[in-house]
Amino acid sequence: MKQNKWFFKRPTIMIDWDDVIVETLPYLLSVYNAMTDSNVQYEWVKQWNLNNICDMRIIRSIFRDPDFWRNIPEKDNAFRVIQEIINDARYDIFICTACQTKQEFDMKYEVLQKHIPGFNMRKIISLVDKDKFRADCIVDDGLHNLDACKPYVSHCIVMDMPHNQNADKDYIRIKGLSE
Fold first, then answer.
1. Tell me: the pLDDT tens digits for 59-69?
2. Taking the CA of residue 21 as centre, how many other CA atoms within 13 Å lie in the half-sphere pointing to its CB?
3. What's the burial of 38, exposed, middle or buried (CB within 10 Å: 0-12/13-18/19+)?
4. Cα–Cα distance, 138 to 154 (Å, whole number)
5. How far apart are CA 12 and CA 138, in angstroms?
6. Which residues contact 155 (CB under 8 A, 6 or more apart)?
7. At a CB cut-off of 8 Å and minimum separation 6, what does 97 contact?
8. CA distance 19 to 16
9. pLDDT tens by residue, 37-48
10. pTM for this model (two decimals)
């Protein structure tokens, strides 16, 4: 008897890159403040929209800088946690990120290759509409992503950030992947 290839499907976990695996927003604001001699605070960001508090031309230039991505700090030992989940082999891990440019995707790819050498690089996906990807679990800081995925995903986990404090109470809230 031929077995269906999905018969032993492992549960799929989709992990967002920015502010879940790496400290994008805090690091972005520190670079921005250094470049502009500003004092924009991380806590001021009540939604992932910086138009009202930052010059977006400068923000875009920071995102285009390869050194920004090479030097971005890891969030709460996320690389080690992802490696442990991969080694455990009970889950299928995908990293999804909304990239603005191919260069941004390439830099994230490079960082991931460096810090998680066992990661299957075909499982990093540039994806804006994360609800188009069917996972069993999603870990994200963007409420718009969690809200869109909620009807299709068994477990929605929100990474605690100032811009998502009005999250649905049904979401599991964490401060880092080690939780």
1. 999 999 999 99
2. 24
3. middle
4. 9
5. 9
6. 136, 137, 138, 172
7. 16, 17, 18, 105, 108, 124, 125, 126, 127
8. 8
9. 999 998 888 776
10. 0.89
